[in-house]
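User: Phosphatase, Streptomyces griseoaurantiacus:
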Amino acid sequence: MLTRELRAHLLRTGLAGVVGTPREVSLRSYRLFGLRDPRVTIGVDPEGVWDERDVLRLMAERCGVSDDPRCTSGQDVIDPGRTVLALHAFAARLARAARHREPVLLGTGHPHRLLGFYVALADALSTAGCAVLTPAQGRCVDITTRFGLRTHRLAYVRGVGCVRDPAAEAAGCEPGAHTHSPLPVRLALAAAAEGGGPLPGLVIGDHGWICGAGQLGFEAVGPADVNDPAPFVGQAEGRVSVVVPLDDAARSSYYRPLTRYVLNRACLSQ
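Assistant: Predicted structure for Phosphatase:
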């Protein structure tokens, strides 16, 4: 896929351009981030003072959203040019990981949407000689949800970490639960350290996986939506290496061309 074809795909599917996130949702997240609400900081502990206006300016710079605080309704936007440039940086980091055969850890808080994207990356990196780590497999972690504190189980699907609610799993709800929590990656990294095995040279993920790993000093890369400012703040403060702005709640099939584009650019077989 050529870059112009990728750009057209991003716009056609709503992964960039006009996206599915309402402006009101984005602004609410920026306000809550300024208040250090853990539901929005998702593992990042900012060093600087980030109020709502600061976050809005950053998201305008990194994603292309309007920087006008008076724009309070409608659908938000992502500049596809910024998405493409970030995908190039993402691919370059994958290529370096493959070249040096770095151990990698992959995880997602969006398994219903992004699991296939990460599975393809895990397969390609494994083929290139990278150890795909799966620490703390099967261990339990308590995560606060809108229904209260719920016990989840850390699972890996073809090398990609996610959490599963045992009750939902018993009911046949797969492949995992949606979460913003950094607790799963903290559990995984602690288990890797305690086990004396290799630690990841690179963490690839979203939500709490990228933020939690970056905050602990691990190099982290991954995608983020316009209503998730934490990865972008983490990047601005040097904790997160690469953040790709895109809609993270689109149809799973829409991400397949991105997978092919990234792997081809990184010279990795799928």
